[in-house]
Amino acid sequence: MAQLPARTRSIRLLRAACHAAIAALALAAGAVQAGGKVHPAAWPAATHATGLDADGERRVGELLARLSVEEKVGQVIQTDISQLEPGDLRQFPLGSVLAGGDSGPGANDRAPPAAWLALARAFRAVSTEERPGHVPIPVLFGVDAVHGHNNIIGAVLFPHNVGLGAAHDTELVRRIGAATAQQVAATGLDWTFAPTLAVPQDVRWGRSYEGYSQDPALVRDYASAMIEGLQGPPGAGGLLQSGHVAATAKHFLADGATREGVDQGDATVDEAELVRVHGAGYAAAIRAGVLTVMASFSSWQGAKMHGNRALLTDVLKERMGFDGFVIGDWNGHGQVPGCARRRCTAAFNAGIDMFMAASGWRGLYANTLRAVRAGEIPMARLDDAVRRILRVKLRLGLFAPERPFEGRFDLLAPVELHELGRVAVRESLVLLKNDGVLPVRASARVLITGAAARDVRAQTGGWTVSWQGADTLPADLPEATTIEDGLRAAIDAGGGIVVDAAEDPAASRPDVAFVVFGEPPYAEGAGDLKLPLYGSRAALTQLRYLRRLGIPSVAVFLSGRPLWVNPELNASDAFVAAWLPGTEGEGIADVLVGDSQGKPRHDFRGRLSFPWPRTVAAEPFARGDRRPLFPLGFGLSYAHGGRLPRLPEDILGRPPSPVAAH
Ligand code: BGC
Ligand code: BGC
């Protein structure tokens, strides 16, 4: 390479240094957020249905006026219970704590309910202490109760949202919300980070199962139902006194729109689609009085949502009238240009009211305080955030001493909740194929097999005891009934026989076999899929073997999303999508096993809330698959037949030649 003259070289260096400095300044100011242009008038106007009355607003104002700047900054920071002791609140008056998916009292994920309650009380006690220079404000304790109170040993857990979507039953969702709220209130916690209002467009996304549907209308209807279930009717105060908790509409916005379904990725859709599809649940949530909204890790048109002032402030708060508070997601502020975990004015100024500072909260506290003092965060912005947080605390009834549901551990798994969960499972089942083998006669000889037949992990999925749910043990779910337990009970009751699964079916000769299989548990990005979509072929081998023996088979498929299973569909005589049903495995037998004459006891009611892919090619998983194998709304029933022609098994969907008749 030729040597440049020294002068040219130094000019170039100087120019490069200048560019770097300007870029750094712009980053620090949060000015390099690219992102799409937003037109607030294009969004639905809504008003918050639980606005505090004039007295309440006056009380908020009075409290705010008494707070020191340190206390105000404390209110806008939340950290994880693994990161602090209750006593730390004396020095750092944080507004909130959370227990993340892998956290539990005393660093024990499997702590008993009483330990949760004791921890909640310990935090509350310090936050409300009378001390000089301290205004007592109870700390808010949040948790991910996303399919029932899933961090608690001994709770009834409901189907994950994908299954509830298939049930198409808003009343069911409302009841599950109310039941979950009581479970959470019983352990002394105040707030759940649910419901997820994602409208997942590409099921390669590992969080697809947290979404109800690819249909925005269903998400909208469920948003109101779940929030009203969790929080009680819009307008009600004293939530905790009535066995309710604060809900969170998450993740704002377009978490389900990221390209190729990449978790925390970029949504490239236009604003009209944001309004029509991904925003569909939010106006409904606000009308239902949702107290909090969580910002999404993802980006829209290249700009991180945590830094998107136009959407967080101009649209959500101003146009849509949301007057609760916006919580960030797990260190999500640190991903905004110019920000780090311990330092971030851009996200706060854009409209995040409370940081979820999973780590580095001490630094964040000090740096935020400094930014306020330096005027980088206007006092008016800080006051607005604190006002919103106090408003939520007041509406919740957090300041009132009475918490009649606290300590009612009998509410974690009462008979009625088992029944509710069981009904939910029943309603969520989608029948994709039935060549006449279902319902199984309760007096039959049956084989129950497959890796997931008695695996609570496959049944409950991620967000169960731990974040990933991968090491959930039967002892962690003492209230659970496995799918095998349920089938066995129904067959026993009908006078049938369950053959020994260890024996070769060629010898035991069952009348019919249930083969239960599916996805392993996962959460968030760990569940993101690359093509091809489904690779476990153990069940397929089993189904083909049974077919060779002439033993009819019923495939029960557990998954967080529709996947390409054409070979399994071909190899089985009936195929049921059972999603991630939770603890109440009997719900499956209720529908699959008839009476001793073989008459159905319950019909299938579930209908797909996501289209089912025809091939494993990328294109069908992207938005608007126009040629799904089974469209949205598909679902067979006993009343309406269910044969299925043989499907192509070539992974790209090319028909086999010649097309074999089934
Ligand atoms: C998830 C949120 C969740 C939070 C707290 C994040 O990683 O994206 O949905 O509420 O963690 O566990
Ligand atoms: C936490 C989860 C959180 C996740 C995000 C986990 O360690 O337990 O709550 O969602 O990290 O990265």
Overall structural class, as computed from helix and strand content, comes to alpha/beta
CATH domain topology of the largest domain? TIM Barrel
CATH class of the largest domain: Alpha Beta
Report the portion of residues in β strands. 5-15%
Q: What is the total tally of β strands?
A: 17
* Bound heterogens, unique: beta-D-glucopyranose
Mean pLDDT: 92
Shape: globular
Largest sheet: 6 strands, mixed
| Tally of separate helices | 21
User: Can you tell me the CATH architecture of the largest domain?
Assistant: Alpha-Beta Barrel
What is the radius of gyration computed over CA atoms, rounded to a whole number of angstroms?
Answer: 27 Å
Low-confidence stretches at least 5 residues in length (pLDDT < 50)?
A: 1-32, 656-662
Strand order of the largest sheet: 12-17-16-15-13-14
Number of domains: 2
Share of helix among residues?
Answer: 25-40%
